[in-house]
Amino acid sequence: MLKSVILAKPTDFSTGFVDFFDSIGLTGSGLVTKAVAAVIAVIAVRMLMQTPNDPKRALRNGSMAIGTLFVAVILAMYGSDLFSTVTDAKG
């Protein structure tokens, strides 16, 4: 007879999105930060794809795209910590 293997414990998502975001470790502001970083990363990749044929302009545009991609990665990794100082201000 086969035994059932439980891969994950059941989770109650009856309160909606709050439970879901808590289960994946994101808050609403963390999700927004990740979305902003994803949009910036897409813009940076698009900038890389549209480099001109002129070597000087291509180097300048490519370095700006790499810098933009770096900002997107830093924002994705540390954005919630950076913005928590602004959003949790005590008035």
The radius of gyration computed from the alpha-carbon positions, rounded to a whole number of angstroms, is 21 Å
Helix-strand pattern: HHH
Largest sheet: none
- Determine the number of helices (DSSP H or I, runs of at least 4 residues): 3
* Record field, number of beta strands: 0
- How much β-strand is present in the residues? under 5%
Give the helix level as a range of percent: 55-70%
User: Would you tell me the structural class of the helices and strands?
Assistant: mainly alpha
3D shape? elongated
The residue-averaged pLDDT reads: 77
Quick structural summary:
This protein is 69% helix and 0% strand.
Question: Explain this structure to me?
Answer:
- The chain has 91 residues and is mainly alpha-helical.
- It is built from three helices and no strands.
- It has helices at 17-24, 28-49, 55-87.
- It is elongated, with a radius of gyration of 21 Å.
- It starts with 16 loop residues before the first helix and ends with a helix.
- The mean pLDDT is 77.
Please tag this protein with its features.
elongated; mainly alpha; about 90 residues
SSE diagram, text form:
Blueprint: H1 17-24, H2 28-49, H3 55-87
